[in-house]
Amino acid sequence: MGLLQNVIFGLVTGSYIAIAAIGFTLIYGIVNMINFAYGEYLTIGAFVGLLTAVTLPLPLPVAVLVAMVGGGVASLVLARLFFTPINHTGPVPMLLTSIGLGIALRNLIRLAAGRNARYFDTETATFRLSGVPDVPVGPFDLLGDFFVTSEHLVVVGCAVAVFFLLHGLLTRTDVGIAMRAMGDDEDLARVRGVDTQWIRDSVWVLAGVLAGLAGVLIAIQTNVSAGTGYSHILQILAAAILGGAGSPYGAIAGSYIIGLVLSLSTAFLPGGMTELSSAMAFLILIVVLLVKPSGLAAQEVREA
Amino acid sequence: MSVADRLPLGDAAGNGALLLGGLCVLLAAVFALTPLVVSLPGSLYVFFEVGILFALYGVLVLGLDLQYGHTGLVNFGHVAFFAVGAYAVAMLSARDSFAGISLGLPWPVALIGGIVAAALLGAAVGATSIRLRDDFLAVATLATAEIVHSLFVSFEGIFGGNVGIGSIPQPVSDLAGDADTAMLATILLFGGVMLLTLAAVTRLTEAPYGRVLRAIRADELVTRSVGKSVITYKMQSFVYGAALAGLAGGLFALYTGAVAPGYFTIQVTVTVWIGMLLGGAANHRGVLAGLAVIMGLRLLSRFALGVTPISADAFASVRLVVVGLVLVAVIRYRPAGIWGDAEELGVDT
């Protein structure tokens, strides 16, 4: 497998990490919390998509949309139940709450779905009751040296669409501009007439929608199990911090760096050490915190 | 300031723990070294197993409380230091293990090696991350624990991969007459070690040294402005906590006779954190009591498993759902813990 192939895998991985990392970093920037349960929102989206596409069964684009709605609803409901009531207590109680919530959600999903990985397009998906939606698979050669699957194109295409829509949202709509204002200075935004609670809820919904999309894309690209979210959360976190926590554009850049590093490191690591490629993401995270704690875009994280 | 200056004679509680701890260790030695044997009813085994684990986690929670309760350092990778202590002891002391490195050194040497290894990791993590804002320190330490975990899994030639390292000497079992006596001696020994740790950290935190730590937690800027080197104190507190975790890990390895990555997951960190928050951070006996409540739940759930019709696998998930929600509930409804001082911790209740 050539280096170019790894670059393609890296871009695909970077794409779904980026979709998730934007949501994660918006929560960080506006609600001011590191949400460790966010990985579980991806899992929720993936299973909602899987249920829609495989159990009902509805066409794949519908399933993706339902997964996004499911992610958004779950995110808002969980925020209202668990995070909004303790908003005033500061970042550490919020972080610890999200860790507890993440463990609870992960195991609830495991109870409901079992331990095995589920796929959209193979016979191991026990969610399937009747016909499988048509996810066109099959690599088609471009240069003989590497391949691009239709799933790859779907993932990257969705990511690019998200980037454009997000940019439009943040620069052209009242909600988006209010979000940016709150990210800069919440008190100032409030005295200028921004309904901060409404904006916060919007951010939760938006982040959940993005998590749902990222989750269902991961499920289409590879598979999904109860542990999917947790296995991605540190990558998302690394991408968001690398890009400068709170900055959506930084998160996109950070995600592609993480994606490429993960993918290229598997090319150089000996077999049986694939676990180490995820350790690479955490190593990048620590190195970034050490060398340039503010990430690619600035926001103060050191205090001493 | 030397270590001796930081350790005044201590208060009544610290001395009580010291005496009781010493007594436990002596009793353990009696059971382990003399031909005296006991036989325990089989129904008590589960209490002894959980009790032994409680004593080890007790040492962990006391170290964590030094870091978080007193100094305000949010270490969410405590299991990493526990694991490094255990693995160092395993690698240094195991006799021709089936996997990984086994040097076959005497166990006391290995135990010291385990404590030193954990302390060194603590110093490394501290040097890189201790200046970070609270929530980012939590993230950095959690990532460290995940890295350590994946290193243990990945390097089979060194750490034995998923199989881990076996044939670690079990000094208590080797000395004691039979399995029941060994169990009683182990719980007495580890309980004694936990009480001695309690005495040591109580003395440390009752001393002026402890007041500096709590001042750092309360207001770092003010502490720095009165001329205390905040970073130095934070580093010391972090390394002490890591070394205690290394001690607990080393004892764990010498008790089980085998280590594997599966013993050292984030669940360990979560258990000690919940114990600490539930009991009330910065209150040494409180955190031990909180841990006892959580470990008691574990014991209850073992019995509940016997009478519920669901599978052990599903039951494990249910238990973790409860554990996660307990963490959420404690932070929301008892932010200072059951025995914690809300005013001193600076939390709203």
TrEMBL record, chain A:
Assigned keywords, A-Z: Amino-acid transport, Cell inner membrane, Cell membrane, Membrane, Transmembrane, Transmembrane helix, Transport
Name of this protein: Branched-chain amino acid ABC transporter permease
Protein source organism: Halogeometricum salsisoli
Entry-linked InterPro entries: ABC_transp_permease (IPR001851), BCAA_transport_permease (IPR052157)
Keyword Transcription tagged: no
Membrane topology qualifier: Multi-pass membrane protein
Family according to the record: Belongs to the binding-protein-dependent transport system permease family. LivHM subfamily.
Subcellular location field: Cell membrane
TM regions (residue ranges): 6-31, 38-56, 62-83, 152-170, 202-220, 279-298
Automatic annotation (TrEMBL), chain B:
Classification via PANTHER family: HIGH-AFFINITY BRANCHED-CHAIN AMINO ACID TRANSPORT PROTEIN BRAE, HIGH-AFFINITY BRANCHED-CHAIN AMINO ACID TRANSPORT SYSTEM PERMEASE
Record bears the keyword Transmembrane helix: yes
Subcellular location as annotated: Cell membrane
Domain of life: Archaea
The keyword Chaperone appears for this protein: no
A Pfam family assignment: BPD_transp_2
Membrane topology per record: Multi-pass membrane protein
Organism of origin: Halogeometricum salsisoli
Protein name listed in UniProt: Branched-chain amino acid ABC transporter permease
Record's keyword terms, sorted: Cell membrane, Membrane, Transmembrane, Transmembrane helix
